[in-house]
Amino acid sequence: MCGIIGFSGKTDAKSIILDGLKRLEYRGYDSAGIALQKDNTINMVKTTGKVDNLVKIAESNKNLVGNCGIGHTRWATHGVPSDVNAHPHMSSDGKFAIVHNGIIENHAEIKKSLIDKGIKFLSETDTEVIVQLLDYYYDGDIKKTLAKISSMLEGSYALGVLCADFPGSIFAAKVSSPLIIGVGAGENYFASDITAFISHTKNVIDLDDGEFAEITADRVSVFDHNLRDIKKEERKITWDVAAAEKSGYEHFMLKEIMEQPGALKATIEPRIKDGRVSFDELNIDMKKYDRILITACGSAYYAGCVGRDVIEKLCRLHVHTEVASELRYRDPMIDEKTLVMVISQSGETADTIAAIKEAKNKNADVVAIVNVVGSTIAKLADYTIYTWAGPEIAVATTKGYTTQVAVLYMFAVWAAGKLGRIDDKKLKELTNDIKILPERAQRTLDLNTRVKKLADKYYSKQSIFFIGRYLDYAVCLEGSLKLKEISYIHSEAYAAGELKHGTIALIEDGRLVVSVCCYEPLLDKIISNIQQVKARGAQVLALAIEGNKKIFAEADDVLLVPKANELFMAAVEIIPLQLFAYYVAKNNHCDIDKPKNLAKSVTVE
Ligand code: M6R
């Protein structure tokens, strides 16, 4: 969703901020803007469309100069994408410019009270109330004013502020929206995520909710709402700038698909000790729980569906899944005997955060599976298991998903051991089956050329179905989402046995049905579903396990993936489906890394 960057240093801020905005493009946006301060003057430019549009306007604007400034990419929530609604927003006297991520829930009341005081609003945004409040209450003490107006705001915000009276300073504030400070040598930054400034510094300070910062070229001071100084620890980012760049790949998505063997290795290997899965980060007694509830959104939810089946199978414990965007409306049966597991690549998904709050209100323990270190979800949960997948830039998750699935496999084995459902021999066997997944993923990538050819054959289809049973069905959900989100082709995933209860009416001549046949105990069942759709004219692309000869007589095209433990196949079989989605989208000339209407982390409910 929106992205923000702030910079204070001794060099030209324009190029640094514009470059940071380019690096934030992946989050999804519809307009962008920049404000720079020189001495006591702030100038800004903003425009709808791509950052490249902004770059052109900004570069030709001779007044836009300074060594400190703020920038923003906006994903419209309140008010259409337009130049006037784009950020920064500036006060009418030119004293303040601000950029904001998040939503001010009480903006309508604030706006009304300010209008009653004679203040004129220019935009339709919720954000504008912040700059108008600053201007109205400012008495020369910027820190005091920031703290005062923050106490009036309800909702979420990561805020970047320039004040004409404080040349060289940028100010930041945060509640429930990510904001990270980058500490450099003679220059400092803030941003909504590290990718915006990783090429300049790897030293960061996490700003926590309710904290404020004044950042100059040489100093970062953090304070609370009583203006007391807060001492913050610096941490170092472990990944390199190359991890956030395309490294010769045409798209981040393809790069991230190819990175999966390495990402799986990074997730799995540190957690295997003496041949057994071990979670240093989990200090829980599994015997305390009578059920597990897994909740998440989108692909993370589909990873949870795989996890549900594997955990229930190995632990013999009730495991339920619920999409996080619905959980709180159901008054769910959650109590201290429920272990709630949330899954999120970004760690910032608003619906998932709301689900955690619901679970905590009901006294459940919350375990989070998260990729982004220090993210809101990682901090909110009682226990956090990091996936260590490295930065994921493409909007469509790939290595984020597979590493989540790997953590869930490991959790299933670990918990089954703790519950005494499997003996040590079985525990070691299963651990080894997980350990070989990176190698299986690597071999699966050899299908790249063949998948590309199949995408060349099928890319013009108007609608594509995915069918599978049990664990394969969970993978179909993710395969279908991948295809629709980046290629805009209509697609549905169906539990193969459900087809005959209605959806088979949509199967007609030439309809493509991708049939996932990797859970071999149910092979005969899925083959009979293939025969049913073939009899109605469908073309079938089957995904099966190496050595499966039967499938060739049933399907039009076959992709064979390497064999792994039948419970752990999802991490392997999803890879050709990711590649298929990628090449279909590419053939259709889609904007693969930044699909229309989508954002990388969905920070609104
Ligand atoms: O960051 P999260 O894992 O919490 O994101 C959840 C979903 O928004 C995300 O998985 C989304 O469905 C992806 N675009 C799918 O590729």
Describe the structure.
The protein is α/β, with parallel strands linked by helices and 605 residues long. The protein has three domains: 235 residues, Glutamine Phosphoribosylpyrophosphate, subunit 1, domain 1; 190 residues, Glucose-6-phosphate isomerase like protein, domain 1 (Rossmann fold), CATH 3.40.50.10490; 153 residues, Rossmann fold (3-Layer(aba) Sandwich). It contains 18 helices and 27 strands. It has an eight-stranded antiparallel sheet with strand order 3-2-4-1-10-9-11-15, with helices on one face. Strand 7 and strand 8 form a beta hairpin. Helix 15 packs across helix 18 and helix 16 packs parallel to helix 18. The longest helix is centred in the C-terminal third of the chain and has 20 residues. The protein is globular, with a radius of gyration of 25 Å. The protein starts with a strand and ends in an 18-residue tail after the last helix. The structure holds 5-amino-5-deoxy-1-O-phosphono-D-mannitol (M6R). 5-amino-5-deoxy-1-O-phosphono-D-mannitol binds next to helix 8 and helix 16.
